[in-house]
Amino acid sequence: MSTTVIILAAGKGTRMRSKLPKVLQPLAGQPLLGHVIHTAKQLHAQNIITIYGHGGDLVKNSFQHEHIQWVEQAEQLGTGHAVQVTLPVLAQDGISLILYGDVPLVRQQTLEQLVAVSSETGIGMITLTVDNPTGYGRIVRDNGKIQAIVEHKDASDEQRQIQEINTGIYCVSNAKLHEWLPKLSNNNAQGEYYLTDIVAMAVAEGLEIASIQPEQAFEVEGVNDRIQLAALEREFQAQQALELMRQGVTLTDPKRFDLRGNLKVGPDVRIDINVIIEGDCELGDGVEIGAGCVLKNTKIAAGTKVQPYSIFDGAIVGEDTQIGPFARLRPGAKLANEVHIGNFVEVKNTSIGLGSKANHFTYLGDAEVGAGSNIGAGTITCNYDGANKHKTLIGDAVFIGSNSSLVAPVKVGNGATVGAGSVITRDVAENALAFERAQQVEKANYQRPQKTKK
After folding, report:
1. Which among 79, 224, 240, 281 is least buried, having the fewest CB atoms inside 10 angstroms?
2. CATH of 226-434, one of 2.40.160.20, 2.160.10.10, 3.30.1490.20, 3.10.20.30
3. Over 90: is that where the pLDDT of 452 sits?
4. Count of alpha carbons within 13 Å of 332, Cβ hemisphere only?
5. What percent of the chain lies above the pLDDT cut of 90?
6. Helices H, strands E: what count in the chain?
């Protein structure tokens, strides 16, 4: 049976107090709606229909590369109306999952289970048993079978004791959606069309409504304001931390770790506090990441040690390297094995060969550094002339003295030495010594100017 995923994402999110549509608010570095779309794709749904409204162009443009069918809900007249507007594009056969763009963390396996149980009856839903159900619609059962959803304000004292609540997530046969949705009425205090009314229609037809509960409550938690968003962020991060620790990662403090993407790890990885990992990252066996580091779209091979407060973006790092503290690797940084990059060293679009070192206060941009070279403190590759970037080539076993400037395009040959304080503007031959500095002038018994006392 083919599956369609319908995602309700038209709401404004007034309580967010933001110009950004609610479904674009970020959770773990990704828009709320992005999490739902990602899960829908994992289900291999035949079609993903997303209902947009407030900030529609911005929402659609944020996912323009996704294979999604967009349907506009020009007026927000309730959840039932939102699904109604999909009927012209909804297939007559198959089954549909109805999800929400502000309920981002429902898991693939939970939805697969819901589809399985709903396929037998034609309608199913996710419910949740909670300690405090105040404000939520109650699930009323008779001999275990769902008979009704009663909103809190309409519930009797007895019904308010029920702890099983409606999450709003349904799985319904397309045939029944085409049959039931046109019959919805807005004859209620809010003047809206409620999706929950299809439950009463199913009961009236004598259909048994299947139900499941999620393994984790956070899967069905929605986001209405920034307080709820922050709380859900912490729950999600806690779950990600648990999964990493199950894989053998040591997290010094799981509550002070953020994963905003995907992380592949080898055994015996150690991550200190306040580390943020974004995008797609990979840490090899025994990698250690110091406190306060930020890694984005970076691959670090086995045995590498990263000292605190180092920032990586789009970098590839070899085995057994030593990096930091306060190092910065920018896009295009490629470090071979056993490289040393020290404090306040920035590397951009540069490859550094086996065992080479730049231990302090250095900028290496648009460069190639060979194996076994030493880059002294304060060395700068002057790669930009105000219009174009130029390449600096540093060979194997080169020694660059401190406070040197290499004005690109320039090449320093294998085994060459550059004297400290030099400004190198021409190529340096292999095994040569190059230095360029003004002659030192010394004035004996020099008297510095003195301030005049007032």
Report:
1. 224
2. 2.160.10.10
3. no
4. 10
5. 93
6. 7, 37
Q: What is the DSSP letter of 387?
A: S
What does pTM read for this prediction?
0.91
Of residues 67, 152, 360, 390, which has the active-site annotation?
360
Which DSSP helix (H) or strand (E) runs through 232?
helix 226-246
- Look up tokens 């190198």; give the residue: 424
pLDDT at 189: 79
Give the whole-angstrom CA distance, residue 86 versus residue 88. 6
Report the pLDDT value the prediction gives residue 252, as an integer from 0 to 100. Answer: 98
Q: How far apart are alpha carbons 251 and 162 in whole angstroms? A: 40
Distance CA(394)–CA(406), nearest Å, equals 10
Query: What radius of gyration do the chain's Cα atoms show?
Result: 31
pLDDT at position 73 over 80: yes
Phi, psi of 264 (to 5 degrees): -105, 130
For the question of residue 44 being annotated catalytic, the response is: no
Q: How many residues does the chain have?
A: 454
Helix runs in 143-217, H state only: 174-180, 197-204
The strand pairing partners of 358, in sequence order, are 341, 375
| Distance linking the first and last C-alpha atoms of the chain | 94
Name which CATH class applies to 3-220: alpha beta
The domain locations on the chain are 3-220, 226-434
φ, ψ at 228 (rounded to 5°): -65, -35
**Distance of alpha carbon 149 from alpha carbon 146, whole angstroms:** 8
Tell me the average pLDDT of the chain: 96
Nearest to 219 by CA among 232, 200, 210: 232
Q: Secondary structure of the chain: what % helix, strand, coil (to 5)?
A: 20, 35, 45
